[in-house]
Amino acid sequence: MGKYFFLSLLAGILFSCSDGDLQIETIDFDSVAIQFCTAPQTSVKNIMFKINDDEALILELQSGVLNKGVVGETIITESSVPSQSQVTYRIFSDAVTKNYFCDAIPTTEPTVVDEIEAEDGTVIIQTVANEDNTEFVHTIQLSGISFVTDTDERITDLTISEFGEVTTAVPAPAE
């Protein structure tokens, strides 16, 4: 009996070894700070990203989605993914820095090992004026973001609901 158990255990180990395929089980960027190359603006596309060692989550917001807000009010704006805004998840061959995204001449290292674009979801932006009414604070959340790999596997345990906060200036009152 012990001989069969040992043979079964050995066979299980041999057949369960990884074939080298990339397995993505979790995307967790909630504790990572939001970054960008140029300060967010209200009338252009904005690219923001979060870097977690050798992974990056990139958000391209559609033009105008960071609205100018209204002092004294909370404005909620939505942008659908992928038709209006885009969310992309990248895995790199090594740790990546902000320079990878912001340098005028792109770096050759690290290289992109895998890139997956979100196929569904919504970007929700809540805009309020800060206490002294000099800036609008835009709280960006991701809802229902769905990544599907090339092999039609859905990435599970998606922990990216809180993307971060960015600010834009409150325009001077018209005279």
Uncertain segments: 4-22
Structural class: mainly beta
What is the residue-averaged pLDDT?
83
How much helicity do the residues have?
10-25%
Give the number of DSSP strands. 10
Q: Which word captures the global form?
A: globular
- Helix count, DSSP H or I runs of 4 or more residues: 2
The main sheet comes to: 8 strands, antiparallel
Order of helices and strands: HEEEEEEHEEEE
Rg on CA atoms, Å: 21 Å
Strand portion: 35-45%
* Oligomer description: single chain
Q: What distance lies between the first and last C-alpha atoms, to the nearest angstrom?
A: 92 Å
Give an overview in words.
The chain is mainly beta. Helix content is 11%, strand content 42%. The chain is built from 2 helices and 10 strands, in the order H-E-E-E-E-E-E-H-E-E-E-E. The protein has helices at 2-15, 98-102, and strands at residues 27-28, 35-36, 46-52, 55-61, 75-81, 86-92, 112-129, 135-147, 158-159, 162-169. The strands form 2 sheets. Strands 2, 3, 4, 5, 6, 7, 8 and 10 form an 8-stranded antiparallel β-sheet that branches. A two-stranded parallel sheet has the order 1-9. The chain is globular and about 55 Å long. Mean pLDDT is 83; it is low at 4-22.
Question: Mind sketching the topology for me?
Answer:
Elements: H1 2-15, E1 27-28, E2 35-36, E3 46-52, E4 55-61, E5 75-81, E6 86-92, H2 98-102, E7 112-129, E8 135-147, E9 158-159, E10 162-169
Parallel strand pairs: 1-9
Antiparallel strand pairs: 2-3, 3-4, 4-6, 5-7, 6-7, 7-8, 8-10
